[in-house]
Each structure stands twice: as C-alpha cells, then as structure tokens.
Amino acid sequence: MGDERSEPPATDAVLVAAMAAGSEDALAALYDRHAPNIHATALRLTGDRGVAEDVVQEVFLTLWNRAEQFDPAIGSLAAWLGSIARHRAIDRLRAASRRPRLVSLGAGLDDEPAADALERAAARRSVGASLGAPDPAAALDASEARAAIAAALTAMPDPEREVILLAYRDELSQSEIAARLGWPLGTVKTRTRRALARMRLVLADVYGPSMAPVAVEPADDSPLALHGSGGEA
Amino acid sequence: MNEHRDAREALELAAVEPGGLDRLEAGDTAEAAVVVAHLAGCPACLEEMARLRRADAMLRPILFSAPDPALRERTLAFVRATGVPRGASRVPASRVPAVRRRAPFGWAAALAAALVVGLLGGALIVRVAAPDGNADPAVAFDQVTRETTALIASGDSREVVLTGDPGMGGTLILSPSAGRMVVSATGLGTPPRGSEYRCWVEVNGTRIALGAMWWAGDVAWWAGDVAIPAVIPPGVVYGVSLVEEGAPGPGTVVLTGSL
Questions:
Q1: pTM (2 decimals)?
Q2: Can you list the alpha helix ranges (DSSP code H) found in chain B?
Q3: Which residues in chain B have their CB less than 8 angstroms from residue A224's CB?
Q4: CA A102 to CA A111: how far, in whole Å?
Q5: How far apart are CA A177 and CA B206, in angstroms?
Q6: B226 touching A (Cβ < 8 Å)
Q7: For domain B108-257, is the CATH number 2.60.40?
Q8: Residue A218: alpha-carbon gap to chain centroid
Q9: CA distances from A40 to A107, B110, B179, B247 (A)
Q10: Min Cα–Cα distance to chain A from B69, Å
Q11: Three-state DSSP class for residue B171
Q12: How far is Cα B60 from Cα B46, in angstroms, rounded to an integer?
C-alpha cells in the first residue's frame, strides 16, 4: 500500500509560471483543469462542436504565448481564459456568418453589446443553463464537476467512455448504441451501467453522498458493486 | 430473480436516456409496471431513483458539453507546433500528430495576390465569404469571385474609403439588399503576435465590433452579414483597429472612413 498522502494541487499561478518556463506538463495540467469549462462555454455560444474545439485550441495557444501577462492579483485564470474563449467564439460566429449580425445602422442605437446579447441568447437555449447560475459557490462546484468528469472520462476504459458519450452526448438509446457499435445489447447495458456508476461517484465527491448509489442489502448480488469484477453480459 | 437488482438495472438504464425515468415511472410497459410496483414497496429503490434523477440533472449537461477526450492531445500538439518557443525542447512539427483545425491562411496567399492587384488597380474585388479552412485555394478564390460579382450585381452597393497613416488604406463595401459587408485593407502590416485587426462600425458614438480580420502578407479583410438599412443615416463611421487578442478594449484605430 503506498503512501496515500498527496501534495495539494498546484495553483493556477504556479502552473502558469511553470508553463512559461517551458513545462508542457504544466500546460497539460492547466488543460485538464480548465478545458471542460472553456469547451462548454464555446459550445454554448456557437452550438458547433467543431468550432468549440477550435476555440479550445486557440485559447490554450494564447495562454501559452502570453503566459507572462497572467497576473493572479488582477483576476483568476478561469476568468481570463473564459473571456478569451467568449471573444474567440463570437469572432468565429461572425467570421463564419452563422447568424445575422445584431448590428443596426439605424438611429437610436441602444442595443446591448452584441456579445452580451449572444451570451444571453445562448444561456436561454443552454441545456446546462443551471450550471451557469450566478451563485459563485454553485459555479465553482459546476466547474469542479466538469473537470472531474472530464478527468474520469479520460481515465475510464475506452468501451465505457464510448457508450456513456453516445448515450449522453449523442442521446442514443441502448439499442441504437448496440447497433452503432455492433455490440450485443447486454454488453452495452453492462458497460453503460459501469460508466454511469463511475460518473456518480465523481459527482458524489463534488456534491456529496446524495449523488452516490444507495447501498444495497448485503444479500443482494446487485451488479451495482462496480468496484468489483462484475462480468459482462 | 432479485427484485432489487432488476429494479436498479431498469432505473439506471432508464436514467441515461432523456426522459427515461419519467417513462419508466409511468409504468406503461409490462417491465415498467413491475418496477413501479417494486418501488411502491421499496424505500431504498425509491431513494435510488431520486438520486439517479439528481445525478442525471448534473451529469447530462456536463457530458453533453464534454470535450472529446482526444482533443487534449490535439491541443497540446497544436500548441507544441505553433506556440512561441519556450524553455523546454520543442518537437518538430513533422512529428506532431494531425491537428483537426481550420487553416485559414492556406489559401490566403492566392487571395492576397489578387487583392493587391485589385486594390492597386483602384477596383474593389473582394467579397469574401467566411474563410473556410476546408476549402483549397482554388475553391476559395472561385468563391470570392462569385460573391464579389453577386454583390456588385445587387445594384445598391456603397463604397467607403478607409484612410490612416501614409501607406495604409482600405475599402469597405456594403449592400443593404444583400445584407453583406466586406472590408479590405493594405499597408497595415502583419499584426504583432498576440494581436489582430478588427473592423467596426460606429453609430451615434457607439462602436460595434464586426469581427477579426483575416490577413495574409500585406492584406487584411473581413466579410460578413450585417443588417443594413436601405437609407444609411449620416454620421456612421467605419474603421479598423489593432487589438490585442482576447482583449475587450477598443485597441488602436488604424483606419477610418465614412460615406
């Protein structure tokens, strides 16, 4: 059994300084911490996964190139990156002419800034609008949950990740996933349940035990014991 | 047969489908009816369903907007290949895995040459659609030509001359009927790293950003949809500024003009 004590996670400022000195590991750590929120912001604004991915890449390129400009005394890294992401996403939308401009050349220009209007409209249609609540504590939890879920997705076995993303991101049914992947339906169900259980444990770490599965009776041989070696269908 | 196990399997599988728990709870199918009957007498499974609902409410938006796990390596490779050199050793670009992103400047050289010729000749030839990195130079140039022709054919296009320091100049063309605007400029020079040229419109003292300009060599341009009234009020100013990327500020004005 190894030493379970662990170093506290490095602060953003420490990681940015390390990255400025050339550490790609620090860049990777910053990606793990902030990319899920940046991607969610860009996706919420643009509604286009390809564009959102481009925005993520551009934001981290900007971070790498301009690391020296980050001053934690002025504001958080999350806020800085979020601002860059919003501007890049909006520029992308404009450049791609995906929507008519809100510009009016008529008199009486009391329009709100286009960026604000776009954000507001995006928030209305956002599936995860509740995650964007102004409550700072809730926003912090949501941010932490996003990062934790993203990390769990990266760490989980490929088949489980595949089914959970097809279920939640592409909103496919179990039968549709089975058909898509050419797997037996029972296998899809087993992997889906395992992946879901992993996700619930991650949520429980962030939000508390009310997110975790209810303990089953000792005599119950439920496959909910996901840390065991439950076989696949 | 284990009722708890079966009920929980049904609950979990229903939870991952949009509205799945509601459908299950409705008890419309034989399997759902069995589960509902079990829930009526099993507080533990009822609590499990409540927890699944809470988890789903948090999980669904997060997973819906979760980045592709492969994006991590693509992003790191992209930064490694195109970022400024820093202390660590750099990986040659030839070793970087393919990065799926648009490359707007790939076709820009051909377009830039055409722009320079057109601008020097005193004629505005630019009507650039949204730069699409998937287009090859020939396709992009053909697109520009066709859109330029269409804009001129609209019959109501207007031209604004943009002026700045000596050696800098540009043209803005707009068409109310087409609802399009194109801005092109020469002599601005390559924007410093971390900066970009942005074009804007100022109405009644309020400046409205149009977007970041694409550039290649000595030419910068932007095109996009703009709601333009048939009668443009006086006093509207058009311009281009050099702005630090990601910065919300107005930047440095380099070109301005009006009708």
A1: 0.53
A2: 3-15, 20-26, 30-40, 43-64, 70-82, 108-120, 137-153
A3: 8
A4: 8
A5: 52
A6: yes
A7: yes
A8: 36
A9: 36, 36, 31, 20
A10: 6
A11: strand
A12: 21
Question: In this structure, which amino acid lies at residue A226?
Answer: L
* ipTM > 0.90, yes or no: no
CA distance B80 to chain A (A): 8
Secondary structure class of B11 (helix, strand, coil): helix
**Chain A residues with CB inside 8 Å of B44's CB?**
214, 216-217
The H or E element containing residue B257 is strand B252-257
Partner residue opposite B226 with nearest CB, options A101, A207, A214: A101
Least CB–CB distance from A91: residue in B18, B76, B212 = B212
The answer to whether the CB atoms of B66 and A131 lie below 8 A apart is: no
Residues 6+ apart with CB under 8 A from A53: A39, B67, B68, B71, B74, B100, B101
Three-state DSSP at A190 gives helix
H-assigned helices in A47-129: 49-65, 77-96, 114-125
The CA distance from B21 to B3, in Å, is: 17
> Per residue of chain B (259 residues), what is the pLDDT tens digit?
478 888 999 999 999 988 899 999 888 888 899 999 999 999 999 999 999 999 998 888 888 888 888 899 889 988 888 788 887 444 333 333 333 333 333 233 333 333 333 333 332 222 233 333 333 434 444 455 556 666 666 777 888 889 988 888 888 878 777 777 777 777 887 778 778 888 888 877 777 777 777 766 566 777 776 767 667 777 788 999 998 876 666 789 999 998 8
Q: Which of B15, B67, B130 sits opposite A35 (nearest CB)?
A: B67
What residue ranges define each of the domains in chain A, with the CATH number in brackets? 12-134 (1.10.1740.10), 156-233 (1.10.10.10)
Q: How is B13-78 classified by DSSP, letter by letter?
A: HHHTSTTHHHHHHHT-SHHHHHHHHHHHT-HHHHHHHHHHHHHHHHHHHHHHTPPPTHHHHHHHHH
Asked if the Cβ–Cβ distance from A23 to B88 is below 8 Å, we say yes
- Sequence-distant (6+) residues with CB within 8 A of B206 are A109
Which one of B4, B16, B132 makes the best mutation probe of the A interface by having the most chain A beta carbons within 10 Å? B16
CATH 2.60.40, chain B: domain bounds:
108-257
